[in-house]
Q: What sequence folds into this?
């Protein structure tokens, strides 16, 4: 079998799961660029309720992200994903039929309850060989990123044609499309890999919450998505006030997003090569502050809005792309799933609080109040990031240790740590697995296998 690339089954699984996840996220993101404008058709419209509606999905998503992943380990990945997509579709129908903002919020809360991220990633891991798993995960990650870009571009066009109710009916169709793909396109899997690298382990969560390095990253993604949703409470209205009709907002988002990637990608390549990802993160955070400061000072001029959106998305896209690598580097061996679960919980909590806070501050003090609130949080994030360390790039892997007795676990872990190229090791005899963080250029696979063999009965 060709080990240098994805085989046919892995390609099919990667495309199917990226499409399933991407369709769901597209349905969630579609509302963000247009709710502030078209939400005014509801009789109980207020800026605060608009903000809550934009971020409401994050509330249930944050609470259910980890439990739904655990459930997929007990009853299977596919049933959880099917159920999550059905719940999402039902929430979309509720929002589509709603005649008030409060009804829309209930629908958005239900949409978020279909929290399938953990189950999708676990099914992706089950569907690929260990050496190909990162490629499958990367395809899924690109699908999520593409869904956000598509939402910004097509939402203003669709919103003008079909209105808010039509957009929610469209998101219901997207969810049903995801169900069809999972049923007809996703290949059957016949393995269940150790899940610590994709799903949280309950007993580890408390320890990871006390990890100051991971805490800084969790706070960072919380602030990043809080600021994003808070700004989208005001941004569409600012663009209309500056003379750009709602149906033409796509013409602002499309070029600014393309130009942001044109700056962000070279910036990331240079900083990764120099192993200065933490410096890059701080530069990106500074760009967010600059973008929102420009908006705060010149919110009524279209050219400044264009400039601010461009600068903002350079920083935002850099941070979104670099966070997974930073999380992997700082998460302890065997705890990537737990670290990722906490990370995404903070991300969705930020989306909910950002929408609600953005709506509240806009209702109380207008655009300036929202921008000052967001800038203050970004400055706090920059200050708290001062303790974030730059660590060497590492790779994760797990090896079978079947036959190693429980009483030898600590001895084997200590011996593994002494080997060249191994940064961390956790030995779990009950699972028959050891999880390692390694430097590939120093790692000697044959020597490690020989070491493990000496401890096996």
A:
């Amino acid at each position: 079998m060709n080990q240098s690339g994805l085989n046919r089954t892995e390609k099919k699984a990667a495309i199917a799961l990226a499409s399933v996840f991407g369709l769901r996220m597209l349905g969630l993101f579609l509302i963000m660029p247009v709710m502030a404008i078209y939400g005014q058709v509801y009789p109980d419209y207020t800026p605060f309720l608009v903000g809550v509606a934009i971020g409401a999905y994050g509330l249930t998503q944050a609470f259910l992200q980890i439990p739904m992943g655990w459930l997929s380990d007990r009853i299977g990945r596919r049933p959880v994903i099917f159920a999550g997509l059905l719940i999402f579709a039902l929430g979309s129908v509720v929002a589509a039929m709603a005649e008030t903002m409060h009804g829309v919020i209930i629908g958005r809360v239900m949409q978020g309850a279909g929290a399938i991220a953990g189950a999708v990633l676990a099914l992706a891991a089950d569907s690929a060989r260990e050496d190909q798993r990162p490629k499958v995960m990367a395809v899924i990650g690109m699908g999520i990123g593409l869904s956000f870009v598509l939402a910004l571009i097509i939402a203003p066009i669709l919103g003008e044609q079909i209105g808010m109710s039509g957009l929610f009916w469209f998101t219901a169709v997207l969810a049903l499309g995801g169900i069809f793909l999972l049923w007809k396109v996703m290949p059957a899997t016949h393995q269940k890999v150790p899940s610590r690298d994709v799903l949280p382990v309950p007993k580890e969560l408390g320890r990871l919450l006390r990890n100051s390095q991971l805490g800084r990253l969790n706070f960072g993604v919380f602030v990043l998505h809080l600021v994003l949703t808070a700004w989208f409470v005001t941004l569409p209205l600012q663009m209309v006030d500056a003379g750009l009709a709602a149906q033409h907002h796509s013409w602002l988002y499309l070029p600014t997003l393309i130009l942001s990637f044109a700056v962000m990608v070279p910036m990331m390549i240079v900083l990764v090569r120099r192993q200065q990802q933490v410096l890059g993160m701080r530069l990106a955070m500074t760009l967010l502050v600059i973008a929102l400061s420009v908006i705060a000072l010149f919110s009524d001029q279209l050219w400044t809005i264009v400039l601010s959106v461009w600068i903002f998305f350079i920083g935002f896209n850099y941070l979104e792309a670099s966070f997974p690598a930073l999380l992997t580097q700082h998460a302890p061996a065997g705890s990537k799933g737990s670290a990722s679960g906490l990370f995404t919980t903070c991300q969705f909590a930020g989306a909910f609080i950002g929408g609600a806070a953005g709506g509240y501050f806009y209702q109380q003090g207008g655009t300036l109040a929202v921008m000052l609130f967001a800038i203050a949080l970004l400055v706090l994030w920059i200050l708290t990031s001062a303790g974030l360390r730059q660590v060497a790039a590492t790779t994760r892997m797990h090896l079978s240790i079947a036959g190693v007795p429980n009483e030898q676990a600590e001895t084997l872990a200590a011996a593994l740590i002494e080997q060249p190229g191994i940064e961390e090791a956790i030995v779990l005899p009950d699972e028959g697995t050891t999880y390692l963080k390694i430097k590939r250029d120093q790692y000697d696979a044959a020597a490690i296998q020989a070491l493990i063999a000496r401890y096996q009965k």
Notes: Residues 266 and 272 are 10 Å apart (CA to CA). Strands lie at 395-400, 422-428, 433-438. The first strand starts at residue 395 and ends at 400.
